[in-house]
# Entry
Amino acid sequence: MMKTLSSISLSLSLSLVAMATPNWPTQRGPHFNGTAGEGMKLPAKFSPTENVVWKAQVPGSSAATPVVWGDYVFVTAADHEKKELHAICLDASTGKLRWSKVVSKGRVHLDDRSDFASPSPVTDGKRVAFFFGTGELIVFSMDGKEEWRKNLIPEGGKYFAFQWTFSTSPILSGDNLIMQILQRDVPFHYGGMSRGPEGATKIPSYLVAFDFATGKQSWMANRPGDAVAESLEAFTSPVLSRTADDGGNLQLLVAGGDALTGHDPTNGKELWRWGTWNPTKIGHWRLVPSPVAGSGVALACAPKKSPVYAVDMKTGKLLWKSEDPEVSSDVCTPLYHDGHFYVLNGEYKDKRISCIEPRSGKVLWTGAIGTRAKIEASPTLGDGKIYFQDHNGKVFVVAADPKKFSILHQVEFGDRSVRDQRCSLALANNRVFLRSQKTLYCFGE
# Structure
């Protein structure tokens, strides 16, 4: 009974905080679904010179989403010249530096597509956690004091058993910090480097939870997959959602290894599993988009122009899959708001965004964004507006209107001095936070 009451309490507290918070505490916001807290007033129009509250320089590139809590903004950076990984805190009101820590020195990437600073931080307003693709997990107090640190690379290895530069973002559930590590099951060599612990015969994929205050391990659960080779690899992050918008059980959703799974967030136990979108065992189908859920439906985007799949969170059974090739996502994580999914296809021709009913799969509309550049930043939503940017740093604002598609604003930022733009926008405290690689902008009316 105590365990049941604890689970109910966690679910209710998560719901209340998510609805009321003005913060953006995780990669996908307070609801874990790309949507900001209610009641904010966010600008529809902004530019490098319009509605700028402040802008600040950061020492390197990153694909991480800024995380905001009150007067604190947390970002990561990979300084490719100095070969340093940074954990950074700025003042949310002024953009002034509060503190910056060099968390490691040495290699900052394994390929030319991304770097080890891609995972987003997470905070509860008492402390903040940073994870890097090097395996370093570091927790700081809000004023920058290091509280604990762990490296999740298995003994005997230098890198995860991952072909590309590893990334996944931590989340918080109650007192626990939860991580997922979905990787290949055997070591291999790629790019002249060993991936995974040398000599290992079986490398696990798993979920692990640590007490956020102490770093003590709370639980660990294997999360196996029957995929092969690169298809075992996932850049996804776990998310929390309830089995109904007005209540229901809280579940931890994990996508990767050719499967979507639901877990008990108090112990990692697998509750259900759906798969697969890859019945022929294609070996290069790594997964990038994280799952998203709403109306009791969990959505998973299969890779490489494949369909989107919707699964009932109570039964673990497939409800529908998309039939229109426009409704697909190889990289962008969809969002959920007010009874609708919004799926951004950053690969399709002039790029498309679709509004979909969760339980039926009915596509209410699909709109053309009108950019030739790829889109790999995930959409975020607040105050009736959907925000995202393309690789060239062009930012789009689309109306979150299930009745019709309309672009409210588009503006060039165009900072390609370091890398393509992949950062999602954060929406907090009536402000829009945009990471344009070495510059962090704060916009407001």
User: Anything to note?
Assistant: Residues 1-19 have pLDDT under 50 and may be disordered. Residues 2-443 form a domain with the Methylamine Dehydrogenase; Chain H fold (CATH 2.130.10.10). The two ends are 49 Å apart (CA to CA).
